[in-house]
Write a structure and sequence with these properties.
Chain A is mainly alpha-helical. Chain A is built from nine helices and three strands; from the N terminus they run αβααββαααααα. At the A-B interface, helix 3, helix 4 and helix 7 of A face helix 3, helix 4 and helix 7 of B. The structure holds a DNA duplex (30 and 30 nucleotides).
DNA sequence: AGTTTTCAGATCGTACATTATTTGTCAATG
DNA sequence: CATTGACAAATAATGTACGATCTGAAAACT
């Protein structure tokens, strides 16, 4: 019946109900879309999803509406919901926005940074270098902590929220692929360079570095996506 | 019962049901929030809203979820929805984002603009000058057409969508207040300056002008909001 | 072959049940 | 006598079930 290859199948559990895994319906749906487990433009039928999630239709409908508000699904009246394609263009688009926003956030951070924060940043950076990409998962967490520390105290909550949303999406996508060695060394270099600029109170320099950082990260993800698409269409 | 002063009251109509006015529940709610007809942080009870809208609770719930996705309401589990305050800070936040995004969009537009488009822009500008702020409504529409023409062909749909959303919010807010004379002349000047830069193929200049344009617009709205807040708290 | 009809499938709206939170009362205690 | 704590009732959010309405496409008909 369903065109979706059974993901989150309720039948995977021991007996019947229980164990929603703690993840909300919204999150499961969102992850399926971001991770590309549902095909682009695929139709999302509430009854189907309700079965798969082990609930009734109402929670699914509300989750879909929320996802529509965030732009992950496209809904047309009386015609249901379709998943917005998360393709290279999409990544390029949000990266381009980040290239504009993150330098601004960084610039402000340089102006208000304290010694304690610099120390903490250096400590995180040391952990990252010590780990040396041995575990993608913990590396991502450390990287997130690094940037989050810089942006968290910013007054523009709207911009920071936007950054967080974009960041989550990009992170989810990049989880599909391994990070190339050259990109790894670039990341380390850029972080070090950024720290130097912050310590030297060079706001423009820090903004430039972050700009390059984001652009490089985006370019890397897009290349990997293109590669994956051409090897396994 | 409700703390919301009856807006969209169903009893305002001739007899009983009919006439939802064409506006969806989502739009009505969204407008009430943006226009400040519901107080900041006000609690939104689904049963209340359902009564007011003349429908049952389910459509209201879905509208709220969509609004949450867009960031207009804040929902906490088992505790319902509250309206996000649309205050001066909020306006400042989205304006700051626009100050970053719009110059980038404009810069690209200068690179691909055709003679026909320049002509159309000049025609719109002529209409704007001819109208000279006699009617706020049609002025807003013309201004929207002016900027929309510049951004509509841009490849980064995500950025343009973001701009449109922000633009609608700002437009709805500024509708509450009259435009000051000094701001009016600034708007005309900036548009003229922008056209000159575009015709001269001066991308950097155009970006600078748009930056000033957005910043000035934001500053104007914020000042008006502050004023209104202090005169009628 | 092209148009109309019919019908299954899916969305949308309403009503109801369940569960969690808030509120209000009253007794026990310092 | 005031304050606090526990318990009960009300209030509101969350979830389930079902009927109404719309869409899309196959089947019947001219």
């Amino acid at each position: 019946m369903s065109t979706i290859t059974s993901i989150h199948d309720a039948s995977s559990e021991g007996d019947d109900s229980m164990e929603d895994g703690g993840a909300s319906i919204y999150e499961r749906l969102r992850d399926d879309i971001i991770h590309g487990r549902v095909k682009a433009n695929e139709r999302l039928k509430v009854a189907d999803l309700a079965n798969r999630m082990g609930t009734s239709t109402n929670p699914v409908r509300e989750a879909l509406q929320q996802l529509r508000g965030e732009g992950f699904v496209i809904m047309t009246p009386n015609r249901g919901a379709r998943v917005r394609p998360i393709d290279e263009d999409f990544v390029r688009d949000i990266c381009e926005i980040e290239v504009l926003i993150e330098p601004a956030l960084t610039r402000w951070f340089v102006g208000i940074v304290t010694n304690e924060e610099i120390e903490e940043l250096e400590q995180i950076q040391a952990e990252i270098e010590g780990l040396n990409f041995a575990d993608e998962m913990t590396h991502s967490n450390l990287d997130l902590r690094f940037h989050k520390l810089m942006y968290d105290r910013h007054y523009n909550r709207h911009a920071v929220d936007l950054w967080m949303r974009h960041r989550h999406i990009l992170w989810a996508i990049s989880r599909r692929f391994p990070t190339s060695l050259s990109r790894q060394s670039n990341v380390l270099d850029e972080h070090r360079e950024l720290l130097d600029c912050i310590k030297a109170q060079d706001a423009d320099g820090a903004a430039r570095v972050i700009g390059r950082h984001v652009e490089g990260s985006g370019r890397h993800i897009i290349e990997r996506m293109r590669l994956a698409r051409h090897t396994a269409p």
